[in-house]
Design goal:
Blueprint lengths: L7 E8 L2 E5 L5 E5 L6 H16 L3 E6 L5 E5 L5 E3 L18 H21 L20 H7 L9 H13 L7 E5 L8 H16 L3 E6 L19 H4 L3 H4 L14 E3 L4 E4 L14 H14 L2 E6 L6 H9 L2 E6 L3 H17 L1 H8 L2 E5 L6 H11 L5 E5 L17 H15 L8
Helix pairs in contact: 4-13, 5-13, 8-9, 10-11
Organism: Microbacterium pumilum
Protein name: AAA domain-containing protein
Pfam family, one: AAA_31
């Protein structure tokens, strides 16, 4: 029976972004981090090169600011953590098995390396409020497992983009910000877009987000979201506005007029879909009072608009918004309606034109469609607005309650992109 040779041993003493690397033959060299590779990954890469040359795994002992670790590195760079275990000749070394014949030599080399490391590193005070030098949030799963032994795996491009989008939608601004979701055609996804934007901002930014059903004509936002403790609509809020704006009002008083979404962490201000439009019209001055209440209690308002672009409340919504989001489907009619809205706003006044130029188009796939159909609409809007985002088909959006957790992962990522695109310009005051 052929006995496999024991793994060769190498040592690495980490000091900031460089390390002293001791080769199995006793030679030393310096390993440094690069812009693409941190120091611990650079050490593993060097050990893997040694393993390839020797055609056998390398036992790597690392010391530094994260303590001492004993690892087994093979020629592919795969890392295995070694634990204390007995060996054939009865010698036990913590984290590594050694032969009696050369165990003393290995221990002496390790002690020499430690003495060299201590001499090379001046004492420094540990900060109690700052993360340790080089410390990262490694997360859970396999990445977290190897991260806890000091090996960092760089996130993928998709993970980096997701983290950037999450940071964008988590921002808080000085003063209330408003987003208008509008398209003059019905059934194009305005309510879905409103609910999903509010959910993303509420979940990532910590609440204080209002989805406002700014609709004279049977708005359905209330039908597809949770009911609160009170059967209240915007018509109940209007006569209570002066009380809610009084200096003695409590932040919880608004709860009697809105409907909280328990999982998605935003509130809904409902219209009454059972009344005719003539019974729930909101005039210019009334809208302004309601907006004062919203700004008093919320950091962000997302308007779900109706289809009547001549209504006072619709026009006042446009005048009060920082950002315009226009939903459309892959159907030519809904895309044309979106384009006509942009044309009309550009002709209305300077501020409306700025909203149109800075608009975000959201192309939602209500049904599975051919890629060429979606691409034609995306290309038609590119260069005409600031951003065009697509949301894939998801059966959870077709009917029933709108819940962010019920969506497929790809759909959640798509709405995160949409919300980030809309939020990226909320910092500046509207012109």
């Amino acid at each position: 029976m052929t006995i496999a040779p024991p793994p060769q041993r190498a040592y690495a003493a980490v000091n900031g972004s460089s390390a002293t690397f001791v080769l199995p033959d006793g030679g030393t060299e310096t390993v440094r981090a690069t812009e693409q590779t941190d120091i611990r990954q650079a050490i593993v890469d060097r050990a893997a090169a040694v393993a390839r040359k020797a055609a056998t795994p390398v036992e790597l002992v690392t010391t530094g600011d994260r303590g001492e670790h004993h690892l087994l590195v093979d020629a592919t760079g795969t890392v295995t953590s070694l634990i204390e275990r007995p060996v054939e000749h009865g010698t036990v070394v913590r984290g590594a098995a050694v032969d009696t014949a050369n165990g003393e030599e290995v221990r002496n080399e390790a002690q020499r390396l430690r003495r060299t490391t201590v001499a090379a590193e001046p004492p420094t005070r540990t900060s109690f409020i700052e993360p340790a030098r080089g410390e990262r949030s490694e997360g859970a799963g396999w990445r977290g497992l190897i991260g806890r032994i000091g090996i960092h795996v760089h996130p993928s491009t998709a993970e980096l983009a997701r983290a950037e989008h999450a940071q964008t939608v988590s921002r808080h601004w000085a003063g209330c910000r408003t987003i208008a979701v509008a398209n003059g055609k019905g059934g194009v996804g305005k309510t879905i877009t409103t609910a999903m934007l509010a959910a993303v901002y509420g979940r990532y930014g910590g609440g204080n987000v209002l989805a406002w059903d700014n609709n004279d004509t049977r708005g359905t936002l209330g039908w597809r979201t949770e009911s609160g403790l009170y059967d209240a609509t915007i018509r109940d809020l209007l006569p209570a506005a002066s009380t809610l704006l009084a200096p003695t009002a409590s932040v919880s008083d608004i709860s009697a007029f809105v409907h909280h979404q328990s999982a998605d962490r935003y509130d809904v201000l409902r219209s009454n879909p059972e009344l005719l439009a003539v019974h729930q019209r909101i005039a210019h001055a009334e809208f302004d009072v309601l907006m004062q209440v919203a700004a008093r209690y919320y950091r962000l308002v997302v308007f779900d608009s109706g289809n009547d672009e001549s209504a006072d409340r619709w026009l006042r919504m446009v005048d009060s918004s920082y950002q315009l989001v226009i939903p459309t489907l892959t159907a030519p009619e809904s895309a044309e309606s979106a384009a006509l809205l942009l044309d009309a706003l550009r002709e209305r006044d300077e501020r409306s034109a700025a909203l149109a130029d800075n608009a975000v188009i959201v192309l939602t796939h209500a049904e599975p469609v051919r890629a060429s159909e979606a691409r034609r609409i995306v290309e038609g809007f590119e260069g005409y607005v600031r951003a065009v985002e697509t949301v894939p088909f998801d059966p959870a959006l077709k009917s029933g309650p709108l819940r962010f957790d019920s969506l497929r992962p790809a759909t959640r990522d798509a709405w995160l992109r949409v919300a980030a695109a809309a939020a990226s310009s909320l910092e500046a005051e509207p012109s």
